[in-house]
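STRUCTURE:
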């Protein structure tokens, strides 16, 4: 019985040899100040996060697309956004049903709603006017 268990263990470990998952490298990321937002479609994961300087200021949004099959970065874009200081949370990165448009949202002052083309991460439209104000929450 002991030799059978050993054979199963050796066989299972040889089948699982190699890495089954990988970490996406995020240049200029500081997870203590802002967590990345992600969306995925057809084997591509899109990531958006703010990059911060040494004084904890941020005026850049880093957006990248990674191929999950080849583990390669397909595209990367750095987009100017309203300047903030300190920790920042986004409401998320969303992908349209057809996979053509990305929407990034920060719904607190200074607000930002940003639409990007998924094929080249180019900015389509932005709005700094939030759909709701503090009076709407009362």
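SEQUENCE:
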């Amino acid at each position: 019985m002991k030799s059978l268990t050993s054979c199963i263990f050796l066989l299972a470990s040889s089948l699982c040899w190699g890495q089954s998952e990988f970490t996406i490298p995020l240049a200029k990321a500081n997870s203590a100040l802002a967590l990345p937002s992600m969306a995925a479609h057809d084997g591509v994961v899109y990531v958006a996060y703010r990059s911060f300087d040494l004084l904890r200021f941020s005026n850049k949004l880093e957006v990248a697309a990674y191929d999950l099959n080849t583990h390669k970065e397909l595209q990367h874009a750095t987009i100017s956004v309203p300047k903030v200081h300190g920790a920042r949370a986004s409401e998320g990165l969303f992908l349209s049903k057809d996979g053509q448009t990305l929407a990034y949202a920060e719904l607190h002052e200074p607000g930002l709603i940003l639409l990007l083309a998924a094929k080249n991460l180019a900015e389509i439209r932005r709005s700094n006017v939030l759909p709701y104000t503090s009076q709407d929450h009362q």
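REMARK: Residues 32 and 111 are 20 Å apart (CA to CA).
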